[in-house]
Every structure is written in C-alpha cells, then in structure tokens.
C-alpha cells in the first residue's frame, strides 16, 4: 500500500500538466490501436495460411483420387504420376491413408508403420476436416473423403481417402509473420509517439509564449502581452491585457484617493499649528504636540498605502543605480553644510522588483538619517544575493549600542529629539520592506557608526 501511494503521489503532479495528459491519452490509444490491429492482422494471416494449406491438402487429395484404380483383388492401385513425391519420404510431413470400410487398405511410405486416427472432425460438403497426431508427435491437419471407385456404386468398392499434412509449416510462417509484424509495429509506435511529442510541443508553444510574456511583465520588462497568438489563445491574451490595465487603473485611483485624503488632512493640521503658534500657552503646546503626532501618522500610513498598492501592479521594475545617483545628489546638498560626502556604488544590472517611488522612500530615509548623524562620510553599497537585493547604508557617526539599535530599529523610538525629523523614517522603511517581503535591520558599521541593512526582492 505504501508503494502504491508513492506511485500515485509521483504520477499525480505530472498528470496536472496539460502536455502530459495529451501525450498520455494519445500514447494509450496508440498502443491499444497497435495491439488490436496487430492481433487482427496476425489472426487474418494465420487464417490465410491455413486456407492455403488446406487448399494444398485438397489438391493432394484430388491427385490421390485421380491416381487410384480398383484392384481386381478388391484393393486399390495407385499410379505414381499423379502422386506428390513427398508421400514417398518417411515422416516427410505429408501422408495418405486409404480405408476400406473399417480396415486400413493402404498407407503412404511416409507414414512408415503409423496410422492416422482423426479427431475433432467437421464436415464441409463432401470433405471432412479434422486433426491427428502424426509421427514424431507432429500436429497434422487431416482431410478425408469417401470415394466409390466403380461406376455401378458397388458398396464393396467404397473407400475413404485421407490426406494429412504437418501444420508446422503454418506455425512457422505465422511466427515469422508475427515477428515481422511486432518489430514493424514497434517502430511504427515509436514513430507515432515521437510525432505526438512533437505535435504537443508545437501545439502548446503559444501557451509557453504566454507564460514567457507574463514572466516579462512580472519582471518589469514589458507592460502588456505582445505578439501574435492563435485564434484559441488570442482571447486569453486580450483578457489578461485588460485585467492588467484594470489593475493599474484601480491602484492609480486608490493612490489618488489616499493622496487627496492626506492633502485634505494636512491643510486643517497646518491651520491648527499656525493658530497654536499665534496663541502661546499650555493649550497651544498640547495642540501643537497632537498636530505633530497626527502629521507623523498621516505620513506613515500614506507611505504604507502607497507601497501596498504598488504590490498589486504587474511589471514594476526599478534600476537601483539610477535611484542611488539621484538620491546621492539630493542628500549631499541637504547635508552640505556639515561637509558630508555620499559614497554610493552599485552595478548597473541591479533591479528592484517594485516601484521607484517606494525604493526612493526607503533609501531616502536611510541615507538622510545616516547624513544627520555622520561626521563626514556616508557609504552606500548594493549587491545581489541570489534573488535578493542587499543594500547597506553606513555612516561614520558616533554609533549606537545594541539596545539603542533595538529601540530605533524595532520599536521606532527617537533617541534624540534635538535632531530634525519626525522620527517615522525607519518605521516607514520597516513597513514598506515588509510589504515587499523584504527585511530591515541595524548593525554596527566598520566606519564607526551604524550600518542599516535592507534586503528586497530583486530581478534580472
């Protein structure tokens, strides 16, 4: 039972393939057709060979009867010129026997000292066909006929002529034909299976092209299913293109609504902050504190909504080197007063599986944070590790202890309120990276400061 279960488990996944199903069905019907056809042909050949053999026996019977003349002593005389010479060779496989009533009148030399005892006889017209065991256990086919050798129908001259032939020749011919038939059908079957494999591969080639086109869309190398497809596949390609377009439109509308909502909230918050600044006091301080908290939350959830929406859009693909070049110039200008140098390097063939805006959001926050704490240098590196894109952002600042890195990286707490910023940058990086199936962590840097490691999905 365990072995049968393993076989079923092994075969089940393969039968899930459309190509495997087509090939298996065609192969089964081909094998069944060849087996049935071979059996029919073999049986037809054997019948034809036996009919030919029976016709030869009947011809020898006619020759035997033609050679027979009544003997004055009540026997039968045979003229050699009408007889088959195989009757003269001992155990030649061709025999005759003439009976007068129930007694054996004469036998062929080929029988030597044996006699014919027919069995399983069936009558067909004047002839009676049967089987017998001959000399050396030969399987004989026997034909017999009652013959009256006198014109006055004298019952004393009524004889039974028997002619028997060895069926080994028929068996040998049938075996040779079956061997030829087997090898011919084997080659034919292999040729048909090869043709089936070729036909299935060519027939399913458009589906493979659809799969490759979808892979290009997923990797960001294409935006639509392009190319000419057969009539049966063209509707599928059209529906997929419509679905991709609809997905982009839905995500675009959702982003617009989120941005509008954020803008709508920021305007009243700005008014509240301005009013609080104009009227100092405990109440104003409380209002400003709550406004600041609300702004942080709006920025936080706006970033999360934008990143979550981008995951549903096929074809997102962003080149890392282009984003790093742009961010390096911007961050260097922001922190130019402190003399911070941005050292960013990566290969041109590194691509992020996602939108540029999300990558800029994550890298921008990390690089800006490193620039705030750096003494003079920020180092950014990008590399591929299997299917992952590994980014490291380091600074030469004072650094953080393991406990402080845990507070900042995992709980998003601010350690120094004197440094400008909302304090949500690392939390946004962590949330967006998780949405993409990535990972974010803080470690100690060899430059003396903090190393931020960001792992994201990559594509070629």
Give the distance, in angstroms, between the N- and C-terminal Cα atoms. Answer: 46 Å
Tell me what portion of residues adopts beta-strand conformation. 15-25%
Q: What count of domains describes the coordinates?
A: 4
Helicity range: 40-55%
Structure classification: alpha+beta
Number of helical segments with 4 or more residues = 10
List SSEs in N-to-C order.
HHEEEEEEEEHHHHEHEEHEEHHEE
The shape is rod-shaped
Counted beta strands: 15
Mean pLDDT: 80
Identify low-pLDDT runs. 6-13, 415-422
Largest sheet: 7 strands, mixed
Rg, rounded, reads 50 Å
Please characterize this protein's 3D structure:
With 460 residues, the chain is of the alpha+beta class. It folds into 4 domains: 19-203, no CATH class; 208-245, no CATH class; 247-310; 318-459, 2-Layer Sandwich (Heat Shock Protein 90). It contains 10 helices and 15 strands. The strands form 3 sheets. Strands 9, 10, 11, 12, 13, 14 and 15 form a 7-stranded mixed beta sheet that branches. Strands 4-3-8-7-6-5 form a 6-stranded antiparallel beta sheet. A hairpin with a 2-residue loop joins strand 3 (94-100) and strand 4 (103-107). Helix 5 (234-278) runs antiparallel to helix 6. The model is unreliable at 6-13 and 415-422 (pLDDT under 50).
């Amino acid at each position: 039972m365990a072995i049968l279960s393993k076989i079923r488990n092994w075969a089940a996944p393969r039968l899930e393939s459309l190509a495997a199903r087509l090939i298996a069905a065609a192969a089964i019907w081909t094998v069944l057709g060849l087996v049935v056809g071979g059996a029919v042909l073999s049986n037809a050949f054997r019948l034809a060979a036996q009919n030919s053999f029976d016709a030869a026996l009947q011809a020898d019977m006619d020759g035997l009867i033609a050679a027979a003349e009544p003997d004055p002593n009540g026997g039968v005389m045979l003229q050699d010129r009408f007889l088959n010479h195989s009757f003269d060779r001992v155990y030649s496989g061709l025999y005759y026997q003439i009976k007068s009533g129930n007694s054996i009148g004469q036998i062929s030399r080929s029988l030597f000292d044996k006699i014919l005892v027919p069995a399983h006889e069936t009558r067909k017209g004047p002839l009676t066909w049967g089987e017998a065991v001959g000399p050396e256990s030969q399987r004989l086919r026997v034909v017999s006929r009652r013959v009256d050798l006198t014109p006055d129908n004298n019952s004393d001259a009524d004889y039974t002529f028997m002619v028997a032939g060895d069926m080994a020749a028929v068996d040998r011919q049938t075996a040779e034909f079956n061997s030829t038939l087997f090898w011919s059908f084997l080659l034919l079957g292999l040729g048909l299976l090869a043709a089936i494999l070729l036909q299935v591969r060519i027939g399913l080639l458009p589906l493979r092209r659809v799969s490759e086109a979808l892979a290009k869309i997923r990797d960001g190398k294409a935006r639509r299913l392009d190319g000419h497809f057969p009539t049966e596949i063209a509707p599928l390609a059209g529906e997929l293109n419509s679905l991709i377009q609809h997905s982009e439109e839905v995500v675009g509308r959702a982003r617009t609504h989120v941005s509008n909502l954020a803008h709508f909230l920021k305007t009243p918050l700005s008014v509240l902050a301005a009013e609080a600044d104009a009227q100092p006091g405990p109440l104003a301080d409380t209002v400003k504190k709550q406004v600041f908290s609300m702004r942080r939350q709006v920025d936080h959830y706006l970033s999360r909504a934008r990143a979550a929406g981008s995951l549903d859009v096929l074809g997102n693909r962003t080149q890392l080197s282009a984003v790093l070049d742009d961010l390096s110039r911007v961050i260097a200008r922001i922190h130019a007063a402190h003399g911070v140098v941005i050292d960013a390097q990566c290969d041109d063939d590194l691509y992020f599986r996602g939108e540029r805006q999300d990558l800029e959001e994550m890298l921008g926050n990390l690089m800006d944070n490193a620039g705030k704490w750096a003494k003079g240098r920020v180092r950014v590196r990008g590399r591929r590790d299997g299917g992952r894109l590994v980014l490291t952002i380091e600074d030469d600042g004072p650094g953080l202890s393991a406990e402080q890195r845990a507070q900042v990286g995992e709980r998003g707490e601010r350690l120094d309120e004197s440094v400008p910023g909302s304090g949500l940058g690392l939390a946004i990086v962590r949330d967006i990276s998780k949405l993409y199936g990535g990972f974010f962590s803080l470690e100690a840097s060899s430059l003396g400061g903090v190393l931020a490691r960001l792992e994201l999905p990559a594509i070629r």
